[in-house]
Predict the 3D structure of the following.
Amino acid sequence: MHAQLDLDTIRSVLIRQEETLIFALVERAQFKVNARIYQRGGMPIPNFAGSFVEYLLHGTEALHATVRRYTSPDEHPFFEQLPAPILPALPAPSPIAATTVNINARIRQVYEQHIIPAVCAAGDDEQYGSSAVCDVACLQALSKRIHYGKFVAESKYCRQPAAFAPLLRAGDAAGVLALITDAAVEARLLRRVERKAATYGQEIDADGPTAAYKIPPRLIADMYRDWIMPLTKDVEVAYLLERQHAPVSA
Amino acid sequence: MHAQLDLDTIRSVLIRQEETLIFALVERAQFKVNARIYQRGGMPIPNFAGSFVEYLLHGTEALHATVRRYTSPDEHPFFEQLPAPILPALPAPSPIAATTVNINARIRQVYEQHIIPAVCAAGDDEQYGSSAVCDVACLQALSKRIHYGKFVAESKYCRQPAAFAPLLRAGDAAGVLALITDAAVEARLLRRVERKAATYGQEIDADGPTAAYKIPPRLIADMYRDWIMPLTKDVEVAYLLERQHAPVSA
């Protein structure tokens, strides 16, 4: 088994991604919802059909694509038809199968419709550029975290291929979902995330921590329970079902 | 006096920028120094004469310039000759004078030569893209924080113009520096920054905080003492000396 699929490695990557995501959300929570940055035509962008956030996300992805961000198996773009890399390809083989699974459209929908209204104060403070720059960071962190489900799934599969084989052959998505679900691990993750949100989101002055939070910690845990964990498991199931026809290269 | 120059407003902006900077540095500290991303010719980028970080920073600034980031008085680009904004100009008058003060070249030098080797483990982990994306966020946060000295200086000047007038007329930089320096405020800032670094940089598991830090808290306070505070005061002095000849528009 590829070293990147080792359980301790996967666990440490997932845990470290929690900080990245919490930091990004705390940054975004400085600004109000600013609904018009998510609306097509909400801001007058010449020669671009999407929203302000789509404009900035697309531009960022176009730039990052030139330095081969999306040739990495743990990165998934929100946009198609990005520029080719200007750097030579990396020789590293991917530890996961090359599938078509990419749920970024759903991730962006969940982010804009559910996460932003929960994390940010209602209203408009005209901080459109700052908000959208934070949105790009949040969306990239969410996408990376959720699509990391492919690594999780490959690792789970490699540990007990015989248990998965009949479910995959039968296309039994509910059976696969049951097999990849570990309630004890999920409960521990939610506790850890709430602790982190309480620590990293607290206001601090020269005398130490205060009782104020930039985002209520419970809200971050709820976001994991209601969105991030289910979407990750959707990626795991979709990946495994497609995997049968797209074997791992490494 | 413009509302943005109110002391409480300035204080809260500076305090909030500490989180942004600490979060960005904690993110960068995941990766090793990766010295080649700062070297011209360190990576083979076609048709670009600078380093890998310069390439990504320039591309990011070019994108952000199109959504008028650098028309805001609290934003300063690292590169010249960026594209014009595609959005209409904002009508808001600037609370500070239009000076030419921009010390980003020095900020980048300090960041690459002093801050990165302090914050990151020595060596090369090949995480060039991820490191450089973090560098862009760190450099933007540092630049914003340090150039916010212009707002600080304008506010200090407005509170006692008669005290500044003779020093400014005489071009007495040392006298201006002495007048803007408040040792008690600086000591409180260093205490607060160390508290924040201790909180936001600590490792946390499901049982709560552990004794481990992603960056030693003392190191963040040292960075403020040795670099951020002196550079901010340099901006304040340079701004005030130039300000006499470039009056505030608002």
About this structure: Chain B has a mean pLDDT of 93.
